Model the fold of this input.
Amino acid sequence: MRRGPIAVLRKMRDDKREWRAHVARTKQLPPDYRLVMEEIEKFMWNFAWDDTMVATFDDILDLLEEGAAAGRPVLEVTGDDVAGFAQSILAEMQARTWQGKKADQLNARVHAKLDEEKS
Done:
């Protein structure tokens, strides 16, 4: 479904407002948490850039804010493998996409056909 130019501009304005709110929240984190959040964002932008990115970043930020409020070290929240933490989130994001569903279908077809050959 096509959207008119006004709807597109409104969406862009709303997206920008949402991003600015996210950045403002990130700036409120303790320095070590802020560093980790910003590095996760840089990493994830390389692999995904859809409409769900800010919402996903906000979910990560919620987790980091809770950890900071509890006084936990940031790597206790994410684990020592911060890239692995980010990759697991990217994998979850992809699983919800059309591409992820197609990948699941491919795996199911291959396994079904291999099982048939064994029988």
